[in-house]
Amino acid sequence: MPTVEDVLERVIELVEPSEEEKKKLSEIASALLEVCRRKFCNIEGFVEASVEGSAAKDTWLRSKPEIDVFIHFSPTTSREAMEKVIIELGAEAVQEMGGRSRLRYAEHPYVEGFMDNITVNIVGCYKVSAGKWISAVDRTPHHTRYVVSKLTPRLRREVRLLKGFLTGTETYGAEIRVGGFSGYLSELLIIHFGGFLELLKSASGWRPPVVIDIEQRLSRREALALFTNSPLIVVDPVDKNRNVASAVTLTKLSEFILASKIFLESPSISFFTGGFTQKPNSLESLAENRELFVIMFRIDEYVPPDVIWGELRRSAAGIKKRLELAGFNVYNYGIDEREGSIVLAFELDKINLPSRFVHRGPPVWMRDAIRFVEKHLSSPDTVAGPWIEGERLYVLKKREETSVDVLLKRWISQGEVSISRQLNEAFSSSKMVAGWREVINMLGSGIHASFLARFLSSRPAFMEAFGRKEQA
Amino acid sequence: MPTVEDVLERVIELVEPSEEEKKKLSEIASALLEVCRRKFCNIEGFVEASVEGSAAKDTWLRSKPEIDVFIHFSPTTSREAMEKVIIELGAEAVQEMGGRSRLRYAEHPYVEGFMDNITVNIVGCYKVSAGKWISAVDRTPHHTRYVVSKLTPRLRREVRLLKGFLTGTETYGAEIRVGGFSGYLSELLIIHFGGFLELLKSASGWRPPVVIDIEQRLSRREALALFTNSPLIVVDPVDKNRNVASAVTLTKLSEFILASKIFLESPSISFFTGGFTQKPNSLESLAENRELFVIMFRIDEYVPPDVIWGELRRSAAGIKKRLELAGFNVYNYGIDEREGSIVLAFELDKINLPSRFVHRGPPVWMRDAIRFVEKHLSSPDTVAGPWIEGERLYVLKKREETSVDVLLKRWISQGEVSISRQLNEAFSSSKMVAGWREVINMLGSGIHASFLARFLSSRPAFMEAFGRKEQA
User: Fold this and answer.
1) Residues of B in contact with A459 (CB under 8 A)
2) Could you give the ipTM of this predicted complex?
3) Which of residues 294-333 of A touch B (CB under 8 A)?
């Protein structure tokens, strides 16, 4: 088994850009900044343009070169005016640099561009002092300043190791789809713990909720009271009322804790490269006899990923709840989104309900007890009873419809499932398929095949690696 | 539809013995009493012999002629001595009367005899004043005196109607097998309410717990405090610390309440005759596709019915609990005992567990989390995972054995089922059969066939009658 040092030495090659790559990114950043300054200098409210994010902090991953250019406006500028010029001039700037651009939405719209394999973002913000935030991204320049003031060349390397580890273990990214660690959070963790291994050693002993406050602005108790229900609390050094880790879910934090434990015990480069390789030949044997149920539909208009993923998550939870109310046991479920095609996959204890069920009636002393008896005695779907147990009437009924796909469709059409209103139409007209063969037929090849393989394996990438090592 | 009066007029024929029958019972009772007095008069401690029970009170049902002869001993007599002479001389007395006798056990042994289609019981008791009870049956002569002092010819008729109704609705009998109304309780209810219909009208409005105190010795609050968990409390007029209805289960009381409601709304003679007729031809269609499971064994030595039924009830409840712990849903179960052959029948949601199940592991922050991962990654019965949800690890496992009969046998042998210790051996070597065809093959003909038909119908006799009326 390689030592941790062996592994990190190999990994650094993967995560640290070469001098040449750094030079190239730096040149493109300067050029883009120049173009932006020229474009925006005559716009009312424009204050300055700056490079932010991983490019400014020199913490970008070799595999993910990215440049964020922020256009700062005075606080008196209207949001509409700012958005309008960002959309127009941002796109022009990207085009002038020879890139392709497209419009994206987060809290407000921004321009995303691609050039020379580099992703660039042109974002508008307000130039404000700490605490006077107007829009959600106004803190970013303050974050950049803070991180730059704390990082050393060694710590930059450690940040890149951490980002590589988070990427490989699929815990990187604050978007709702992931619910993991943002770049800024990674940098703060390295600053706080002084290094990658130091962080992992600490994390392998964490028990949520975990509170980290680099600048010691809050007591643990204050932090827990302020950020209730956050499994990981990292107080923002530039704003003590903000939890930098607010996007981190308990599941992702737990995956990080476990990945840290396993890596320290059994270090491997696959924690950084992602250990999972799809084995399409074995899909059938993986799925055999499992009680699978899949919902599939398309969303063709553009919806910001955080919006769509929030709705998908809530809807999947609502479906799980309704299925369990009906007597299905939901073992596991997963969501996939590729090019507007959505899949929700469920593994159940069964895809058909029992053909009989006990219907609980009123206590005998209730006025309507005798009506219950009459009704069910003469009903053709009564199998047995009514009988009395304790003070209450029961009757065994035949269930006409038992299959999960038909039942769920019906419940959705009757408004009995808590799904996001925006997706109601999509779910109503969705394709629902139950049975492992049917699911493989539908998803076994095509854009969702890799998701299906991972759903059937239900194993974080870093564990696959651990497993293979164990067997070797 | 006949009126209540029509029905009762016809019923009285069934429940009231003819003058001739009464005369015959009375003569046999006198003769038996005479024989007993002669047999016991020289025995040390003997005080007197008396006729008790329904014969003494003239409340016996035409279909159930029965004579209880009580042999009273002085309180100084030892229990062993009393039991010994009852066993010996009681049997001699029955034989002298030309009857067959056998030994039975309740709290202490007594002699049961059969002659001229009449059942006789010869029972030993202590001659004590009220409140000085030594054995469980010492109150009986006091009960007889109380009831005789209160009954009129009209009330005797009403008692017989009630006993007929209780018999027909299967709520008659204080033995554990039934958990219903004793003869003495029936008499007290008629005395209290002044008639059969008056009782039924009251009962149809009962909501348990129900407190009845003829002599007004206790407040409702005192009675509820004294007889906690009794759904029906009828304070014994000869002993205010005793609940005459202590044997009545909530289920039987509820059946009585519902039967009262239905009878008053839809009177029919079948409430007195028992409406249920087995339809052996339709057993198959009744059982089809139902998830049935049966346990069958023999008990060949004599065990008092209350003992065996208590053990069977507790064991069935223990089995239900274990099955539900494993994920079976027990819809209903029933117990039958015929000539030493015991059957426990269960209707389930399924007779096989799902072939996969989710095994819940430790939270990731626990020391053994990594061992859990290692163990299940390398285990051949791991289907998927481990994965993390919230702070916890889960893994999907294959279940090698899924059928209820094999599983239950295993759990019993491993001591995981709360069954009566006396029956442990019987259950361990019992025959267990799952599947509706298999169950019909085993029980569809033979001594348990009628039980099986009733279990599959799961409908009190009085409801069958109601149902047929509804359909007519």
Assistant:
1) 384-387
2) 0.90
3) 327, 329, 331-332
Indicate whether B465 pLDDT > 70.
Answer: no
User: Cα separation of B224 and B220, whole Å?
Assistant: 6
Contact status of A419 with chain B (Cβ, < 8 Å):
no
Across residues B149-176, what is the average pLDDT? 96
Q: Which has the closest alpha carbon to B185: B176, B177, B196, B173?
A: B173
Would you say how long chain A is, in residues? 472
Question: What is the CATH T-level fold of the domain B280-352+402-460, as seen in this structure?
Answer: Alpha-Beta Plaits (3.30.70)
Q: How confident is the model at residue A259 (pLDDT cuts 50, 70, 90)?
A: very high
Q: What residues 370-409 of chain A have any CB closer than 8 A to a CB of chain B?
A: 370, 373-374, 377-378, 383-394, 396
Percent of all residues in chain B with a pLDDT value above 90, rounded to a whole number? 85
Of B258, B387, B456, Cβ closest to residue A459:
B387
Q: Which amino acid is at A346?
A: F
pLDDT of residue A461: 81
Considering only CA atoms, give the Rg of chain A.
27
For the domain bounded by B16-138, which CATH number is listed?
A: 3.30.460.10
Question: A277 pLDDT exceeds 50?
Answer: yes
- pLDDT confidence of B472, banded at 50, 70, 90? very low
B456 vs A303, which has greater pLDDT?
B456
In a mutational test of the B interface, the residue from A383, A389, A457 whose CB has the highest number of chain B CBs within 10 Å is: A383
Domain A16-147 has CATH 3.30.460.10: yes
Q: What is the pLDDT of residue A133?
A: 93
Digit-coded pLDDT (tens) for A293-327: 999 999 988 888 999 999 999 999 999 999 999 99
The SS3 assignment for A130 reads coil
Q: Residues A185-235: pLDDT tens digits?
A: 999 999 999 999 999 999 999 999 999 999 999 999 999 999 999 999 999
Residue B208 at interface with chain A, using a CB cutoff of 8 Å: yes
Residue ranges matching CATH 3.30.70.590 in chain A: 280-352+402-471
Ranges in chain B annotated CATH 1.10.1410.30 = 151-273
Distance between CA atoms of residues A57 and A181, nearest Å: 17
* Of B105, B97, B104, B186, residue with least CA distance to B150: B186
- For chain B, residues classed under CATH 3.30.70.590 are 280-352+402-460
What is A280-352+402-471's CATH topology? Answer: Alpha-Beta Plaits (3.30.70)
Instruction: State how far the alpha carbon of A220 is from the alpha carbons of A192, A227, A231, B440, in Å.
Output: 16, 10, 13, 67
Shortest distance between the Cα of B171 and any Cα of chain A, in A, equals 12
Using 50, 70 and 90 to split pLDDT, how confident is the model at B303?
Answer: confident
For residue B317, give every residue at least 6 positions away whose Cβ sits within 8 Å of its Cβ, in sequence order, or none. B418
> From CA B333, how far away is CA B206, in angstroms rounded?
27
Rounded CA Rg of chain B: 27
Interface test with A, best of B364, B389, B458 (most A CBs within 10 A): B364
CA distances from A25 to A17, A20, A119, A162 (A): 10, 9, 10, 21
- Cross-chain CB nearest to B378 (options A327, A349, A470): A470
Overall CATH class of domain B151-273: mainly alpha
A71 touches chain B (CB under 8 A): no
CA distance B100 to B91: 8
Q: Mean pLDDT across the stretch B296-303? A: 90
- Tell me whether strands B109-115 and B100-105 are parallel, antiparallel or unpaired: antiparallel
Binned at pLDDT 50, 70 and 90, residue A279 comes out as: low
- Residues pairing with B163 in the sheet: none
Within 8 A by CB and 6+ apart from B366, the residues are none
B25-55 per-position pLDDT tens digit: 999 999 999 999 999 999 999 999 999 999 9
